[in-house]
Amino acid sequence: MTRVWKTRISNYPLLPFLEHHSHDLTERMPVSLPKSEFRKRVIPYLSHEIGAEGIRATPKIVQGIQKLPFPSTLKGGQSFLGSLNYYHKFIEDYAVEAASLILTDDQVRAGRGLSRAKESFETLKRKIVSIPLLRHPDQTKPFVIIPHANQ
């Protein structure tokens, strides 16, 4: 098993090349056929699709979020944000848009900020549907970290 590149997700090794797989078989690496998938371009894992290009959110779940109506209660708004929280890394400026959806009871009763909340709700739904791809990092280039911070 030397010089074989592999990534472990749970107990499933992903081998990028068939010749590496045949090498592992000659080295008597055990393979469970019912648990194995071969020549797959994309593998589903925890509501994500992982492939050679990168990681993306599962389209089926994203479409379910798209069909949600504007929440009529404070609890409904919190539930919507909770459903998006798992995918926040796919949404640019998630914290900025989500902040306007967090209204207090007094603001809801007075009707203040409701138009901004509806606008943010639609923006978040639009951004989650566009499903960006998180690419694997290029190890040859320097890493740049851009944190979300207040000024």
UniProtKB/TrEMBL annotation:
Task: Note the superkingdom of the native organism.
Answer: Eukaryota
Q: Which SUPFAM superfamilies match?
A: DNA/RNA polymerases
Instruction: Give the Gene3D superfamilies listed for this entry.
Output: 3.30.70.270
The record's listing under InterPro entries reads: DNA/RNA_pol_sf, Retrovirus_Pol_polyprotein, Rev_trsase/Diguanyl_cyclase
The name this protein carries in UniProt is: Reverse transcriptase
Give the species.
Phytophthora megakarya
